[in-house]
Amino acid sequence: MVYWPLASSHFPIQTNEGLEWLGSEALRRLPWLRHGFSLRCGGVSARPAEGLNLGFAHADSREAVEENRRRFFHALGVENLLLADLQQVHSARACRATLAGGAVAYVSAARSGPDAATGPLAETRAATLQSKPEADILTTNEPGILLAIRTADCLPILIADPERRAIAAVHAGWRGTLEGVTEAAVFEMARSFASKPASLLAALGPSIRSCCYEVGPEVEEAFRNRSPENQAFFLRPNPESRARLDLVAANLAQLDSSGIPSSQIHVADFCTACRTDLFFSHRKEGALTGRMMAVIGIAQP
Ligand SMILES: [Zn+2]
Asked: Are the beta carbons of 3 and 253 closer than 8 angstroms?
């Protein structure tokens, strides 16, 4: 089975005020939507997170990250949106961001995904949190909120529903992908906003690709234990070499089985590990490297 989308995938590099980022041509056509995938060029951080590091870390100063974020949000024209982000834990858990008293709050369902309780029971289990929740899917249908996912090799996925004006941002590493994080995101949009999968647009940003993503036998086994068909996501250049995981193919399969037409799925053709001139790569540069951000928000009317 081939999961590669049929639509050509245009992710031109955008420029504003001397800062560059990647945007999806398909998402840019929605006038109410703001989005972008950051690049590493144009920031003030020093080694080992040299460039536009957008993640707070011991190896970088808070002031540098705040200045980088200010530049990125200003270039995108989203500085008036309130940032919503997560403690990313490689799960398939979802949270809905909402505005409460001029600040972002997070509504987390106790369980998410196709097996979760829906309706009144799900609502009673939901908890509203002021601090960043542990989850890997953020959704909203409210203007004024900027959903953000931080990555340095993991796959960021942005989803928009042009009919219901709802959005999602997804963090998909191998563990989240194994747990069905992308399928869970589409399910959450349907549950929270009555989104129809057939209407959704999805943009898969830069990530480590199968050219570079060697994984151990335990990863291959974990995927195979879920379904023998998952073997299709592992490549081996020759019988003796370690397996390489095709994270994009695995998540395209989830989008496909969720019912999003392939013509509405767009993939940025960049490997973060191959292109450390453009991106931070945890695999290539180590844990102290910087973090990119994928952001999506509904503009204030
Ligand atoms: Zn590569």
From this structure: yes
